Amino acid sequence: MTHGSKSHRALGSIGAGTTPGRVYKGKKMPGRMGGTKTKIRKLKVVKVDSDLGVVMIKGALPGKPGNLLRFAPAKIVGKNIPKN
């Protein structure tokens, strides 16, 4: 906080005055981040334990531990997908 500045992350000026009289496209502004769906491909299912209700997957998954994940078969055009 040099010289008593209290606005480090706050938005300052968003553009000039009368000319151009608008805010330019692509102006960096605050907004929401995250909460989007992501697809991760080429993951391998190592083991399925129906007693515990656990699916072991080899690879990195998005999100924090405890989040819900949705599994769907891969849609690869022109290739056969094995049933196992």
Task: Tell me what you see in this structure.
The chain is an all-beta fold. Helix content is 0%, strand content 13%. A two-stranded antiparallel ribbon has the order 1-2. Strand 1 (44-49) and strand 2 (54-58) form a beta hairpin. It is elongated. 0% of the residues are buried. The mean pLDDT is 82. One of its GO terms (molecular function) is rRNA binding.
Topology:
Blueprint (H helix, E strand, L loop, with lengths): L43 E6 L4 E5 L26
Antiparallel strand pairs: 1-2
Short description:
The chain is mainly β.
Key attributes of the depicted protein:
single chain, 84 residues, mainly beta, two-stranded antiparallel ribbon, 13% strand
Largest sheet, spatial ordering of strands: 1-2
Helical content class = under 10%
Tally of individual helices: 0
Report the average pLDDT across residues.
Answer: 82
Q: What's the number of extended β-strand segments? A: 2
Q: What is the gyration radius calculated from CA atoms?
A: 24 Å
Measured by DSSP, the beta-strand proportion falls in 5-15%
* Biggest sheet character: 2 strands, antiparallel
Helix and strand succession?
A: EE
Report the principal-axis shape.
elongated
Structural class: mainly beta
Cα-to-Cα separation, first versus last residue: 59 Å
Which parts are unreliable, with pLDDT below 50 for 5 consecutive residues or more? none
GO cellular component, one term: ribosome
InterPro entries: Ribosomal_uL3_bac/org-type, Transl_B-barrel_sf
Organism: Linum trigynum
Region (Disordered): 1-38
